[in-house]
Every structure is written in structure tokens, then in C-alpha cells.
Amino acid sequence: xxxxxxxxxxxxxxxxxxxxxxxxxxxxxxxxxxxxxxxxxxxxxxxxxxxxxxxxxxxxxxxxxxxxxxxxxxxxxxxxxxxxxxxxxxxxxxxxxxxxxxxxxxxxxxxxxxxxxxxxxxxxxxxxxxxxxxxxxxxxxxxxxxxxxxxxxxxxxxxxxxxxxxxxxxxxxxxxxxxxxxxxxxxxxxxxxxxxxxxxxxxxxxxxxxxxxxxxxxxxxxxxxxxxxxxxxxxxxxxxxxxxxxxxxxxxxxxxxxxxxxxxxxxxxxxxxxxxxxxxxxxxxxxxxxxxxxxxxxxxxxxxxxxxxxxxxxxxxxxxxxxxxxxx
Length: 328
Known about the structure:
By secondary structure, this protein is an all-alpha fold. The chain has a single domain, classed as Orthogonal Bundle (Farnesyl Diphosphate Synthase), CATH 1.10.600.10. Helices cover 75% and strands 1% of the residues. It has 16 helices and 2 strands. Strand 1 and strand 2 form a beta hairpin.
């Protein structure tokens, strides 16, 4: 079986497991939104990482489908609540839960999803359950911390590079690391390997977010799948904007601040003007260098693990490389 066919076969099993799982039946107004957001798809990267990490050390990753899906349910719970906070109208091209129903329903349904995530972890062997719950709780708190930092940054004039990198590590990357570490723990891997896989996931996760920042500005519109320059239009404090504000001087600084201060503007004009400033300041290459640093650091951690299945190791590498080189 090739690396891609192995990951694809696991993905099919994940989808079947998620589709067949009942989160509850009555009242429908509570449970329909859960089924809805879970049916919107997505790449299912996090549970897939858990299954691949498990397969590095033990056979039959299907045995931990519940635990892998717990990570995905938790992830979608955070998306449901984040969409309310961001007042986002769309999620994966479809109406968000609070738009399709209402905010109160989305809050309550999200709360149930968190509880159901714990339910899915309860089949873990008693000897491993305390550690699994402790690490899950730690990760869940960190994701919330990252979201709060992100909201704090909206109202701050200055955000430093280190603060931003810490925020995206908490909000996005730690859950990728946890997904890998969870699979390793459940497979009985050595603690050091579990930690290396966690560090691999965190570094790769930070790199992925920097890639997203970069694609939002410099992607090919035909391939990107959404409006290029959305972060520029909304003045979102991404790595690119933070570095531009740090490096711009005199007229460049004046021009950048002009566009940041405008409340009414032509979107295309603003995107083109700010992108031109980024290019002049070398922001694209700076972002690529930072991104590559995190990817390189992550793969150094992966290369240091001791595994028993070359097939699963190759599949994990292939999946990660595909994500690194994506164009949307």
C-alpha cells in the first residue's frame, strides 16, 4: 500500500466512524447543529495524525477511532464557538451554526460537543486514561488561551512577533501536537517519542499558520478558493503585517498606516497597495524563512523518533509534505 493510499484508507474509516456516531437525539435543536458542523467535512488532519502516530508503534489503528474522533469533535467545538466570537457567516462555504440557527443554540450545542469529546476518550485503558485526560485538558486550556490572545490583539495597536508566534502555537499548533502524542501514548510508545511527536506537530502547526498568512496575501486566486487579501482588508494582525509595521520607515510607514486607518476603501486597491508594500519590504521572504525554520525544526523531531512501521512513518511524512506544499 502506498503512503497516500494508507492515509486515504484511514480517512475513509474516520469518516464512516464520524457519520455513524450518534451525539444524541432529543431535542433536535440541540443535536442537529452538532451533526451539521461535523458533516461539513474538512481535511480531518488531527484525527488522521492520531491514527498515523498509533500505527508507528502498534497494529490496527482502528482500535482508537473513538479517541481520534475526540480530537476532531473538540476541534469542531472550538470552531463553532470561534465563529460566534468572530461573527463569521460562513464555515467551509456553508452557513455557520449561529447563522443557520442562533448564537444561543451554537453555544449550547458546542458545550455538548465538549462533553461528547470526553465520552469518546473514556474507552481508553484504565492505566492510560489519567494521562490521556490530563494532556487533553492541558491542550484544551491552551487553545482557549490562544483564542483569548487573538481577541486581545484586535484591540492593540502593537503586537510583537514573539507574542503572535506564541498565540498561533496555542490557538492552532498545540492541538496538532496533541493529536500525534495521543496516538503514540495509546500505542504504548516511549515517552520520549511521544514528546518528539508532540514537538513535531507543534512546529509544523506554527509553520502551517504562517503558510496560511502567506497564502492569504500571495496565493493564486484561481487556486486559493477564497478571496485573496482577506487579512489585509480586515487589518488582521498576521505575521506579515506585524513585520511590515516593524520594518516600514518614513513614506512606507505613512502609506501602511494610511491604509490601516481607512474605514471606507476599494478592497482591490487596498490589497494591491499593501501587497506592494510587503514586496518592497521583503515581507514575503521573511515569512518564508520563518516558516521554513519551523518546518525544519519539526522534521528534525520526527527524524529522531524510534518507530516500528516504516509504512506509517512514510505516510505521516507524505501527509505533512502535502500540507506544506499546498496552494490553498
